[in-house]
């Protein structure tokens, strides 16, 4: 989810109120609370599902086969009836739905008293008891001046439905001060957490630009978000890139898909979002007045499913990453991401030293994320580059024993060694250790 993904949410007039129709929950069953919730699960999310004419069981089975477990349908699916159909298909295929509902827009974001609370109640009543419902989309990439209003809307949702999270996705640091509402990104993040008090923080960052990779922006945002969410004791998730946008973003290759996933995992993400699953039209399927000037003009191309409904190479690349995350990401859910260190040529350039291992070697261009639980540690070591391999040796600190490999992808070690490694671009290894 980025500016394009929910662009219409930004451009809709905020000062208007809506009066909404009556919802219908039918025979939907109560959510099984023994299953992981949106907040407790490691989330693998796809944004932009099939267009309305392709919303079928077969297409939802195709989504499930890619390893995506949560879907923001969008792409023409914007009302209660359409979203409930998506949930019915999701229930049959094991996919949870995070709906965009245009009854939520437009809303004034000033005071609770000025918000049409009946619309929120109707949306909540429509969705909250469906087994395939996951969370409410409230807004994408808001500026800081909207935070008080978003807090009020979130509070109403929580009062109506305390079991499902109101989801607000934030800008990356390369948003302008006008877009952020602050002169610096950390202030934007802190204000959002303190004002809205979210159950998790979601943000997007698209570092794979045409002609360049924005490494510093990617790692700096992960650092800021990780630090501030740890202080607030909430998880964070990152929406990352799985398509191209002409004039801005390139289509990622396999190594770049893995690089996004593995570096974010080292920094402690509790989920990833893919922008996009199905290549959307420039208007995202949003129906606007015929006389209105189009406000969605970005040219999307070659997402996991192309504009004609055909799988691209990205379908395979993202699927591979998703199934790796089902092992590596979900296997770290209950562990504490206590330390993160970024190294360039074997020298620490960001973060703090791992209390478990240290790297050696001129080609040690890596990120080390240390996860702890009781007397155990799982250390995520990821290549910090999506372009060059990283080769290095590891020194295990005296109080620790290296036990084995928990997970790895595009990682090669010297025969029988847990300390001498080569990581291909985007590669990663998770090593398990115990206290002596």
Number of strands: 20
Major β-sheet annotation: 8 strands, parallel
**Alpha plus pi helix count:** 10
- Low-confidence parts lasting 5 or more residues at pLDDT below 50? 2-33
- Widest sheet: strand ordering: 3-2-1-11-9-6-5-4
Amino- and carboxy-terminal Cα gap: 44 Å
Q: Radius of gyration from the CA trace? A: 22 Å
Give a topology summary:
Elements: H1 7-11, E1 43-47, H2 57-65, E2 70-72, H3 80-93, E3 96-97, H4 117-127, E4 135-140, H5 147-160, E5 165-170, H6 177-180, H7 185-196, E6 201-204, E7 208-209, E8 212-213, H8 215-232, E9 236-241, E10 244-245, H9 254-266, E11 271-275, E12 300-301, H10 313-328, E13 336-344, E14 347-351, E15 357-360, E16 366-373, E17 376-383, E18 390-396, E19 400-413, E20 420-435
Helix pairs in contact: 2-3, 4-5, 5-7, 7-8, 9-10
List keywords for this structure.
eight-stranded antiparallel β-sheet, 10 helices, eight-stranded parallel β-sheet, 2 domains, 436 residues, 20 strands, Immunoglobulin-like, 27% strand, TIM Barrel, disordered N terminus
Question: What would you note in describing this structure?
Answer:
The chain folds into 2 domains: 7-332, TIM Barrel (Alpha-Beta Barrel), CATH 3.20.20.80; 336-435, Golgi alpha-mannosidase II (Immunoglobulin-like, Sandwich). The N and C termini lie far apart (44 Å). The longest helix has 18 residues, at 215-232. The protein is of the alpha/beta class and 436 residues long. Residues 2-33 have low confidence and may be disordered. Strands 3-2-1-11-9-6-5-4 form an 8-stranded parallel β-sheet. Strands 13, 14, 15, 16, 17, 18, 19 and 20 form an 8-stranded antiparallel β-sheet that branches. A two-stranded antiparallel sheet has the order 7-8. Helix 2 (57-65) crosses helix 3. The protein is globular and about 60 Å long. It has helices at 7-11, 57-65, 80-93, 117-127, 147-160, 177-180, 185-196, 215-232, 254-266, 313-328, and strands at residues 43-47, 70-72, 96-97, 135-140, 165-170, 201-204, 208-209, 212-213, 236-241, 244-245, 271-275, 300-301, 336-344, 347-351, 357-360, 366-373, 376-383, 390-396, 400-413, 420-435.
């Amino acid at each position: 989810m980025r500016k394009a993904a929910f662009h219409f949410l930004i451009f809709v007039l905020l000062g208007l109120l809506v009066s909404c129709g009556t919802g219908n929950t039918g025979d939907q069953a109560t959510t099984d609370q023994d299953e992981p919730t949106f907040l407790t699960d490691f989330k693998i999310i796809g944004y932009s599902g099939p267009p309305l004419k392709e919303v079928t069981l077969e297409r939802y089975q195709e989504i499930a086969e890619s390893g995506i477990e949560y879907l923001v349908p969008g792409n023409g699916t914007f009302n209660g009836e359409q979203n409930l159909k998506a949930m019915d298909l999701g229930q049959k295929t094991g996919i949870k739905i995070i709906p965009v509902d245009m009854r939520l827009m437009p809303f004034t974001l000033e005071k609770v008293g000025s918000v049409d609370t009946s619309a929120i109640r109707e949306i909540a009543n429509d969705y909250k008891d469906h087994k395939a419902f996951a969370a409410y989309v409230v807004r994408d990439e808001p500026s800081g001046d909207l935070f008080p209003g978003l807090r009020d809307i979130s509070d109403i949702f929580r009062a109506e439905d305390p079991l499902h999270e109101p989801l607000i996705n934030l800008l990356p640091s390369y948003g302008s001060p006008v877009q952020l509402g602050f002169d610096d990104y950390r202030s934007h993040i802190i204000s959002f957490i303190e004002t809205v008090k979210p159950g998790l923080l979601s943000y997007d960052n698209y570092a794979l630009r045409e002609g360049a990779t924005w490494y510093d922006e990617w790692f700096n945002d992960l650092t800021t978000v990780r630090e501030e969410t740890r202080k607030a004791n909430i998880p964070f998730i990152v929406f990352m890139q799985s398509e191209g946008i002409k004039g801005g973003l390139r289509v990622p290759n396999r190594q770049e898909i893995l690089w996004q996933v593995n570096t974010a995992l080292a920094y402690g993400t509790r989920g990833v979002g893919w922008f996009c699953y199905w290549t959307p039209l420039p208007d995202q399927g949003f129906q606007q007045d015929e006389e209105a000037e189009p406000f969605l003009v970005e040219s999307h191309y070659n997402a996991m499913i192309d504009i004609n409904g055909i799988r691209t190479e990205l379908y395979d690349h993202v699927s591979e990453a998703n199934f790796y995350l089902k092992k590596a990401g979900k296997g770290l859910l209950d562990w504490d991401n206590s330390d993160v260190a970024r190294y360039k040529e074997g020298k620490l350039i960001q973060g703090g030293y791992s209390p478990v291992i240290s790297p050696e070697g001129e080609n040690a261009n890596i990120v080390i994320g240390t996860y702890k639980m009781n007397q155990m540690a799982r250390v995520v070591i990821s290549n910090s580059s999506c372009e060059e391999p990283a080769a290095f040796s590891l020194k295990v600190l005296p109080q620790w024993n290296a036990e084995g490999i928990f997970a790895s992808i595009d990682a090669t070690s010297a025969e029988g060694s847990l300390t001498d490694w080569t990581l291909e671009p985007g590669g990663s290894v998770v090593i398990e250790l115990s206290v002596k």
